[in-house]
Amino acid sequence: xxxxxxxxxxxxxxxxxxxxxxxxxxxxxxxxxxxxxxxxxxxxxxxxxxxxxxxxxxxxxxxxxxxxxxxxxxxxxxxxxxxxxxxxxxxxxxxxxxxxxxxxxxxxxxxxxxxxxxxxxxxxxxxxxxxxxxxxxxxxxxxxxxxxxxxxxxxxxxxxxxxxxxxxxxxxxxxxxxxxxxxxxxxxxxxxxxxxxxxxxxxxxxxxxxxxxxxxxxxxxxxxxxxxxxxxxxxxxxxxxxxxxxxxxxxxxxxxxxxxxxxxxxxxxxxxxxxxxxxxxxxxxxxxxxxxxxxxxxxxxxxxxxxxxxxxxxxxxxxxxxxxxxxxxxxxxxxxxxxxxxxxxxxxxxxxxxxxxxxxxxxxxxxxxxxxxxxxxxxxxxxxxxxxxxxxxxxxxxxxxxxxxxxxxxxxxxxxxxxxxxxxxxxxxxxxxxxxxxxxxxxxxxxxxxxxxxx
Length: 455
Known about the structure:
alpha/beta, FAD/NAD(P)-binding domain, 3 domains, 5-stranded parallel sheet, 16 helices
């Protein structure tokens, strides 16, 4: 249990009712719905939806196969580009990517083809007797992958396809990264993340070693000596602080810590519940936290952001989900002081109202207070500097706090590649992490085979 919230009560609803509250956010399409929706696709020659997809899925092609009732072919076309296509279909912000680019999304129709739901339909209903991709002949090369999140898993699978042996080093007890520990429970329900990992591992040639953390019990120097190449999919393991006094008081917690606990809970009725809840932030994690607290039964849930709605990291779709779950969104206000009760526990927060002056955020001098039994911070995750304490890892070139890579995901150290959130590329999306892993795997394979030819 989360120590900082142990003083809070448990949900009033029973386990069965709470489980229903965390059922699938978007029910899957029926066969009839999928047939009707797939028929809307125009199969554009220069399909803008493909250009908008970070993992470069051939969208018109897989939709055409659905229309022909060839779900096996549709699923294989998706997985060939994105081996984690099932989870991406559920968590990817399609409304600002492929579906926004859909030619049906115009002033007359305002209704793009539901690409994400069709992708899910194909993958959920395809029947595979064996893994759809076969390994190439063994190359005798071994590659180390640090991190079993979307980037690392994608890289490992593609390397295995090329015939390399892969060892994945993961700090957590389960593989999956954010898909397992960081996504709202109503987006990836049941054990979907683990079933997807099991499917991915079905290709063979991939070993996962748990309890392995870089610069703790794992050295980049040793990895580079023992393996033919190394891929770093470290993610962003640390959380940003508010920089206020009393930030460690009981009742104040990083949203990611609670979401992790919620996703691993066997019984939601045993989770601590803040009847009055404050969430600080404006991204998808903030929305996920606020909505889940509301679904657990919180009476009063407020999300506060220092800028306006247009600047929020969460998409309009995510904001609508929050509003539909009775979450109040407050903008133009920043945390000013943590308010404590007589026992030193959180009782609320004072906020300073903000405004823009010549493009810069300024305080107005006006303040207001919101009562809360718990405050959850979701102001961004950051790179865990401890992971680069290893002498060799410390030599990695950085862009700010993140690892610098080129277009082929190569770092400044020969033989070391990186991808996903730990790099400065992209928008920290699952689908982009998958693409990073795939691109890195192709680059690693090309380099290893070049070395073989040179020898």
